[in-house]
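note to self: dont lose this again. the chain is below, predicted strucutre after it. 109 aa total, dont forget to put it in the shared folder this time
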Amino acid sequence: MANLSEDRYQELLEQATVDCYNDEEEQLMSILYTLDEQLAFPLEAHILGEQVELLGLDDQASNLHRGIVARVRKGGVEYRVGLSELAFVGLDPASAEWLEMYRRWAALL
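---
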């Protein structure tokens, strides 16, 4: 994962939530849509020691309680898991930054 400076974290967060107020639900959905645009899908990841392919994000299943829900595939079957539960492999630098920004933001909730 990327090691974002505080300035870079704030820059990405502001870019993702530019039209949001202090409403956390609105911020979550804005971050989700930004990640959906910025991440280079599909991405290779692991969950519970198993390799999966991150296909995209599920805006219908995502909420403040669960966080952003990811659509992953393993062995031809699609599953839904928390984005923060995934460990990524071989990320491009931009995807790594966006995912680190989300994890830091989610940890503050």
